[in-house]
Amino acid sequence: MGSEGSINLPMIDFSRSELRPGSSTWDSVKSQVAKAAEEYGCFQALFNRIPHEQRKGMNGAMEELLQLPLETKQRNVSEKPFHGYLGSSSAKPSIYEGLCIIEPGIYDNVESFTNVLWPEGNIKISKTLHLFSQPVVELDQTVRRMIVESLNVEKYLDEHMNSTYNLLRVAKYEAPQTTEKKTGLMAHTDKNIISIICQNEVDGLEIQTRDGDWIPVKFSPDSFFIIIGESFQAWTNGRLYSPYHRVMMSGSKTRYSATFFSTPKEGYIIKALEELVDEEHPLLYKPFDYSEYLKRRFADHGKIKTVPALKNYFGV
Ligand SMILES: O=C(O)CCC(=O)C(=O)O
Ligand SMILES: [Fe+2]
C-alpha cells in the first residue's frame, strides 16, 4: 500500500457548451470517462450548469431537512431497504443520518416527500430539491451513455436507460469536534449503477484505489463526484471498477451531502452483456435480481464490519 493522498483522482470537465453526442468535445470527454471508470471507478466532474445561488439553496435545504426532530425524519419510511430514513434511533444515536427521496426529478414525488415531513407543505424545499435534481439526472444520463458508447454496446442503450430510476439521499455527518478522524460512513461499495455526490464546503469522502490506498476527495464549488456501482460493474462484466469508499470526519464543521443514485428498477435482472464475456474476460457474476441483492445486503447490514460486496453473493 502506498501513502495516503499521493494520487490525484481524475477530474473531467463537463462544462463545455458543445458537449453533444457525436461532437469532438463529446468524444474527448467520453474517452476520459471510460478511462477513469475502468481505472478508478470514479472521477470528479466539473459541471457548471447549476448556478452558485442554487447550490447554496440546496445546502440550506439539506440543513433544514436534517435538522428536523428525529421523530419527524423517521416518518419518511419506505418498504424498500435503504429508501427511507437512515441513521439514528433514540437507543443508538449516530453521527450519520440520511433521508431518501425517490425520483426527485418528478415534482409530485418531491412534494409527497416534503408533505410527510411538513403536513402543511413546504413549497420552497420542494422546489429547491426538484430544480437541483434535474441537471444532475441529465449528468447521470450523459455519463452512462458515454460508457455504453465506449464499450461499443449502444444497441443496449435504451434498455439500459429505461431499466433504472433515480434515488436522492441527503445526508448529514455531525462534526466530531476532534482533529482525529472519525468514521462517518464505513467503507462500502455502492450497489447501484452510478452515484453522483455533491456536498457543502466540508470534505470527508475517501476513495480506495485498486492498490488499496485511500484518497481523500477535494471537492470544488462546481464539482460532483461520480462513483461506479456494482450493478454497472456486473452488467459490463468487470470492465468498470466499483471502488470501496467511506466518509471520514474531523474538525468542528458538519458535512451535508446529496447523492443521486441511478438504481435498477424493482425485479430487474442484471446480467452481463454477452458481447463483454469472452476468454479474456470470463463471466464474473451470475445474473441476479437487484431487489433480491438489496434485501440480502440490508439483512446483513450492521452484523458484519465490512459489508460483503456482490462477489460474495453472486460471484461465479
Ligand atoms: O456522503 C458521501 O459523500 C458519500 C455517501 C455514500 O457513499 C453513500 O451514501 O453511498
Ligand atoms: Fe456510497
TrEMBL record:
Ranges of residues in domain Fe2OG dioxygenase: 164-264
Xref: PROSITE patterns: FE2OG_OXY
Keywords: Dioxygenase, Iron, Metal-binding, Oxidoreductase
Superkingdom assignment: Eukaryota
Molecular-function annotations in GO: 2-oxoglutarate-dependent dioxygenase activity; metal ion binding
Protein task: Probable 2-oxoglutarate-dependent dioxygenase that may be involved in glucosinolates biosynthesis. May play a role in the production of aliphatic glucosinolates.
Sequence similarity: Belongs to the iron/ascorbate-dependent oxidoreductase family.
Protein name: Fe2OG dioxygenase domain-containing protein
